[in-house]
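Work Package 4 report. The design task specified in the project plan requires that, given a folded chain encoded as structure tokens, an amino acid be chosen for each position. We show below one input record used in the internal validation round.
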């Protein structure tokens, strides 16, 4: 009975994944030749060839023959009559993928088949949105992104795992991994800032700008106030939101490479986000058509500056934690005033390499966030944003101290 059930699972999943891809193609491209039934049958063929090969042939030649047959069919469909029906090559590739997913199901790779099938279906369905998104990027921004990705890909395999300088061990690959994580977070925020069109556009852009660079966005908020003082309400709300975004980014920098820290960090994170958003909604005022201009974070110089900042701040924090917890907290605080991202990434590196304990890391992160907020306030002050500071200091203080209080309470209860 178990074998029959497994057989039905393999066949059923193959048909469903193929039908999903075929449904997307038939709905989006209005396919007449390769639609839902064709995709489902091709995926089923992939699964059947695997099962027959395993049970009867004891080799997988039939699986290869089946794939070649599907590939020939896809190419023939493209170069003959199907071309006149405006069938793009994406559909032909999808046919071959349907066969592969069916074969994967035949091998019993159920989770992998479902995951990849859904990802491919989403990529196919998001064609128009992807084109619309890309059209909003300038040529220079795309070029910067390509250079940045090449730099990340070329440098990582070349750098040593660790590097010892005067007794201080720099975990270079861990530091570089954090730069990649930070870059990915920045990428998502930057793309959303170009794509989203919402009622509260200024506030949303401030939040996304806070993810990328909170100090630069603080300066932009102050500059917007200098141009239009009637926006005091919405700009105060925007300043609170960019600090909330900074918290979110920094917690992600710590949690992604240190999964075990999530249970301890999630409550302080949700607490501070709740306070920031609540105060922001309460303060929010009337907006106008003005929007912030967020520059691309994908300059090679940005990666170099972040790397240098990490290499400067990391040894300071490493030495301070050897001197004692109080020195470590002070160093985290002052480092975050200068560079929030570099300070938090350095703490994350120390956690990832086991050089500090979890609770020492959490305490330094919370204190560093206090320094980061002060750094943003200093930028706002020198950019003539004093009115925003006077209006936001109470909610800013409460939202910053709330996660520290929640963490202290959780320690007491535990």
């Amino acid at each position: 009975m178990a074998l029959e059930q497994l057989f039905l699972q393999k066949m059923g999943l193959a048909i469903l994944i193929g039908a999903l891809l075929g449904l997307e193609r038939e709905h989006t491209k209005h396919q007449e030749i390769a639609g839902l039934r064709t995709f489902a049958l091709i995926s089923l063929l992939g699964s059947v060839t695997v099962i027959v090969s395993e049970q009867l042939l004891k080799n997988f030649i039939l699986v290869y023959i089946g794939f070649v047959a599907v590939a020939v069919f896809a190419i023939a469909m493209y170069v003959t009559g199907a071309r006149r029906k405006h069938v793009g090559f994406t559909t032909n590739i999808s046919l071959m993928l349907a066969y592969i997913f069916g074969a994967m199901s035949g091998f019993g790779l159920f989770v992998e088949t479902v995951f990849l099938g859904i990802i491919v279906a989403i990529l196919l369905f998001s064609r128009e949105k992807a084109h619309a998104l890309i059209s909003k990027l300038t040529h220079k921004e795309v070029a910067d992104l390509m250079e940045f990705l090449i730099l990340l890909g070329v440098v990582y395999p070349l750098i040593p795992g660790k590097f010892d300088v005067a007794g201080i061990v720099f975990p270079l690959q861990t530091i570089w991994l954090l730069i990649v994580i930070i870059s990915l977070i920045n990428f998502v925020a930057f793309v959303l800032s170009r794509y989203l069109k919402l009622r509260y556009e200024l506030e949303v852009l401030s939040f996304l700008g806070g993810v990328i660079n909170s100090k630069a966005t603080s300066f932009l908020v102050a500059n917007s106030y200098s141009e239009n003082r009637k926006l005091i309400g919405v700009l105060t709300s925007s300043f609170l939101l960019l600090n909330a975004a900074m918290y979110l980014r920094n917690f992600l920098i710590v949690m992604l490479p240190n999964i075990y820290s999530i249970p301890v960090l999630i409550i302080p994170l949700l607490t501070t986000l709740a306070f920031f958003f609540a105060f922001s909604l309460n303060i929010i005022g009337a907006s106008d058509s003005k929007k912030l201009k967020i520059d691309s974070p994908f300059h090679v110089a940005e990666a170099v500056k972040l790397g240098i900042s990490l290499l400067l701040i990391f040894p300071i924090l490493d030495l301070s934690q050897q001197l004692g917890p109080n020195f470590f907290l002070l160093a985290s605080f002052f480092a975050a005033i200068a560079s929030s991202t570099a300070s938090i990434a350095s703490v994350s590196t120390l956690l990832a390499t086991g050089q500090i304990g979890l609770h020492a890391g959490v305490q330094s992160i919370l204190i560093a966030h206090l320094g980061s907020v002060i750094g943003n306030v200093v930028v706002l002050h020198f950019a003539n944003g004093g009115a925003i500071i006077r209006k936001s200091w109470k909610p800013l203080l409460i939202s910053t101290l709330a996660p520290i209080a929640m963490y202290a309470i959780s320690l007491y209860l535990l």
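The radius of gyration is 27 Å. Validation will be extended to a larger panel in the next phase.
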